[in-house]
TrEMBL record:
It holds the Pfam family 3Beta_HSD. One of its GO terms (molecular function) is oxidoreductase activity, acting on the CH-OH group of donors, NAD or NADP as acceptor. This is 3-beta hydroxysteroid dehydrogenase/isomerase domain-containing protein. Residues 1-109 form the 3-beta hydroxysteroid dehydrogenase/isomerase domain.
Length: 137
C-alpha cells in the first residue's frame, strides 16, 4: 500500500526501493509511473541490505514477523522484530538517511488475555483503520 501511495501521491519521489525477502511483485495492480528497484535481502543480515539504503531520503520500515503459533518462537520474533529493527536504524544512521518511518507490528500492541498469552486483546485497534490523508503535504 505504501508503494501504491508513493506512486500515486508524491511527485517528489523519483525511485522506490522495495527491500523484501522475495522479489517485489505489484500485488495491488496499481500504475507504476516511478521505477521500483527490488532488493532481495533480510533485515537480520544488515550487509545484505546496505545497497537499499544508499542515497535515499526516507525509509519506511514495515518488515516484521507476526506469529500465531503457540507457543510463539520468541527467539525468532526477537531476531526479526528487535534485532532487525536495530539493523535498519543503524543502516539509516550509517548511510545518512534523514528520515525513518517505523510502522511496527501488531505484536507490540497485543496484550495477553490470559496469563500466558494464547489469546490477546488488541490495544488502540482504531489506528489501523485510519484513512490515508487526502493532502500529501
Amino acid at each position: 500500500h505504501i508503494v501504491r501511495e508513493l506512486q500515486k501521491r508524491d511527485p517528489g519521489v523519483t525511485e522506490i526501493r522495495a527491500l523484501e525477502l522475495h522479489p517485489y511483485r505489484n500485488r495491488l495492480g496499481h500504475d507504476i509511473k516511478k521505477p521500483i528497484v527490488s532488493v532481495v535481502a533480510d533485515i537480520t543480515e544488515p550487509e545484505s541490505c546496505r545497497t537499499a539504503f544508499q542515497d535515499v531520503s526516507c525509509v519506511f520500515h514495515c518488515a516484521a514477523l507476526v506469529s500465531y503459533n503457540f507457543p510463539a518462537d520468541t527467539d525468532r520474533l526477537h531476531k526479526v522484530n528487535v534485532t532487525g529493527t536495530q539493523n535498519v536504524i543503524r543502516l539509516c544512521q550509517e548511510m545518512g538517511v534523514p528520515r525513518l518511518v517505523f510502522t511496527s507490528t501488531s505484536e507490540v500492541t497485543l496484550v495477553p488475555y490470559f496469563q500466558h498469552g494464547f489469546f490477546s486483546a488488541v490495544v488502540n485497534q482504531t489506528e489501523t483503520k485510519a484513512a490515508c490523508p487526502d493532502d500529501p503535504s
